[in-house]
Amino acid sequence: MKVIRDPQKLGRLIKEVKRKGKSVGFVPTMGALHAGHLSLIKEARKENDFVAASIFVNPAQFGPAEDLKKYPRPLKNDLLLCRKQKVDLVFLPDQQAMYPQGFVTYVNVEELSNRLCGLSRPGHFRGVATVVAKLLNLIGPDRLYLGQKDAQQAIIVQRMVKDLNFPVKLRVLPTVRQEGGLALSSRNVYLNASQKPQATVLFKALSLARSLIDQGQTNAERIIRRMKELIARKKEARIDYVAIVDLEKLNPVKKIDQDCLICLAVKIGKTRLIDNLVITHEKN
Amino acid sequence: MKVIRDPQKLGRLIKEVKRKGKSVGFVPTMGALHAGHLSLIKEARKENDFVAASIFVNPAQFGPAEDLKKYPRPLKNDLLLCRKQKVDLVFLPDQQAMYPQGFVTYVNVEELSNRLCGLSRPGHFRGVATVVAKLLNLIGPDRLYLGQKDAQQAIIVQRMVKDLNFPVKLRVLPTVRQEGGLALSSRNVYLNASQKPQATVLFKALSLARSLIDQGQTNAERIIRRMKELIARKKEARIDYVAIVDLEKLNPVKKIDQDCLICLAVKIGKTRLIDNLVITHEKN
Fold first, then answer.
1. What ipTM, to 2 d.p.?
2. Which of A203, A209, B12, B79 could join A181 via S-S bond, C-beta 3.0 to 4.6 A?
């Protein structure tokens, strides 16, 4: 496994790989790898000749009051995990290499970036789109792997790939959960012992929504109200948003009569967690 | 010579070309080709195995009050010229193919886009950066050819290529001029018989600046004043801007003691023309 920090060195290596006609799968990460990331890497390993992962805590997607500094960086273990999964290349740039002095170019996926998580994290998705554009240009993968847990991110990246004609196929893989349903996230390490059980309330609220829909409820507002009531029972839970939106424009839907995304962001203590569930109309 | 309108068909062809290990040179144009464009194509022909040109009047870079509709589109002649220069591929998409419904992603080269031409053409360089990003992704060239006449455009595209890590080398080739010094532009056809001689005043003003500098003048403000006086003598000339800026950030310079760009935009009647001159410090 090669670990490369220098973008230009990366470019040369990738050129070599492509000259050999190898297909390239790419898994972008901020490190602190968990079983969710590993499921992406495993799928990439299955589908491609060459697997590249990146580990880069991208400052452009953190707000000034957010957790950029304390975001976990267990680099040694991350590299160990990558090696175990037979990753061919880990790209490990520093901030200076990615955002050198004079950097002024940003990719904006308008409309989709200012709702849901974008409302409480202004600039976040601009940072995501920009760094993904950079990484796609650096690595030139045939396939890009993202997790469904970050549903809005996946939808925004898909939109960017389509709009800017990136020659890559996006694969979005299911959220990996631990016992109790908590979606795996690198930020789960912030939760203390009393918060951990409370954090399962996101999945419980989604499960409640699912069962209401299965029972025939189609009124989005009522489903959201029931979810909010459930979450409010947890002492340390503060709701950022609970929403039911369409999958294309992320506009709120009133009636569950089309494919839609039920998504929520909840703070447990100081830790902001997100989760979501896709409802496909055929299932109703 | 292949003429391709469909982006997906283009993608398949380009993949084929790359699989053969051919180098690709790309000349993006809005058509109405003149000797300036042809100089780019000729250079691309010299330096690459495969030459692609695009002809697309990009609506995203026109303001609502600008000349999108009346912009010249002599397609038949353009294709003839491309064929003569042994272009391998002309990409000729329509608006719908480039900006399908739901399109929301834009590339912004901040700071550099809001000065000089960007002041009187808000959104123009966002449109340029976005379409160039799209075309680079569609064509994946090794080398991209632009003209020095659009100096700010070249600087902005260079910045975007660097910031977003596009794996392409930008080549900026000298402005081609007709007798009297008028820089070739597809918009010159808008000039009537009495305006044409007046339009040479842009080049005359630049030549004056050059001779003042050669005589030892280093005060940017004085040079600009002299240029403006010269232009003001032409009846139908209205100055948009005359500026002397650095080549990196396009900030105004006070003293000509570094590499800089002398640039101007002047309306001759209703036709907005631009021109520029790079001063390299070594020459002074």
1. 0.96
2. A203
